[in-house]
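Ticket closed. Logging final result for non-specific serine/threonine protein kinase.
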Amino acid sequence: MDVIIKDSFFDDPNETVFWNVTDFPKNELALEMHDTMYIDRNSGLYKGTLGIFNHYLLYFKKQTIKKWVNLDNTTIEYTKHQKVGLGIKITKNKQYFEFFGDVEPWYNYLKQYCIQKNFTHHYTLQKKIGQGNFADVFKAVNKQDGSEYAIKCFRKAKLNESIDRLAIIKEISIMKKIQHESIIRLYEVFEGDEFLFLVIEYLKGGELHKYMKKSPPFSEEKSAKLIFRLLKAVSSIHEKGILHRDIKPENIMLRNKDDIDNICIGDFGLADYYSQSGQYLFTRCGTPGYVAPELLQDKVYDFKIDIYSIGILMFILIAGKSPFDGNDYDDVVMRNYYAKVKFDECKLSVIGMDLLQGLMNKNPIKRLTAEEALNHPWFTTDNLTKTCQFKIRKQNQNVSKKLAYFDMNIKQYSAISTQFSPKSSQSNHSPYCVTKCNIEDSPYTQNSLVSLKPISTPRAQVANKLRQVQRFQIPLKQL
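Final structure:
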């Protein structure tokens, strides 16, 4: 009987084979698993030796790798054989491979890389905690142990463009590769007939910018603790060759309410792997007012764009206002574009100001790396003790207005992104951002300031329950 294989969202239209028969790229292997299994071939069973190395399934013949397959975004499910019992079926590009034996440990390992089915067998959706253009977010409970998770549900019918697929696959790939205590974790991915389900860590504390509104401004000691944790997380991201590209208070979460010591970076919808040539899926992206000037200027950029964004956050924590505070959107973008920062408005100790200017140096060559910043003397115990005695500038009577303006800026200039706040029903969840450029654009594109106009498309329209967010390509209008 012929096996009918349904189309998968993760199928690569340019690939039609399952196994790779070229030489495996690694010479020395530390296998995660290695065993003899019953392999189904042409409706018959035979014994074969399989192994797992990271996210690769290896087929051995006489202790030599005969063929191999990259398991990222392949579909995995249990199957049964009337003679040998439980097995695993792996499907990729409408081709499949089945093997039988003691497969449960294999399944538990492989599911971190593969796409699973039968979501409702594992989780119970409870209440909606977020809504966006492309996805809804639900709080859910694992049926086996009762643990709470956030489930991001993408409706596949809305993801009908090729760039949709590329954006989501890249986001999933990046999140799977990052394991750090201060970075939101993606646990599992499921695909159903209508939806994609991303099982993500459930963060109860809400967004940092909401916490900042309740306790402005931060002392240097409090700011140092937060910035240090953030730099450690970003350093981990950079070590894996990944740029976040959208670090801002809205994308930094608290695991528990008012627990500023346990922050977590989220929203990897705009993240990408570093490209020396400057070629990215989205080149100009991020949120004006929170990005490095070289990104707005269409220059080739690297990991240091994230460092500049951390510097902006440090400024906001201490000063209670944005370093690019302006009269309107265009004014904010202009100040950000030319890196016009009034450092004297941020009342810091001498050693603190030295770090801030190192993080926000408009010349990326002179700007600090994450590792250099982590070794800065501002983070030492002795200096933190001294900064406690340094009198932070008191906010004047307009502090509430500044905070309201700050909150308005975040909502107005935010990208439609894929991260969410578990406490908010107004978050957007989309593989798109409002500031992305065409997939063929590159940092070498000669876009003048006048030519960067807002994009108005049906995708920018959101439900009434969402905050009003405009979709932009870094509009600068006239200088």
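Residues 387-479 have pLDDT under 50 and may be disordered. No further action required.
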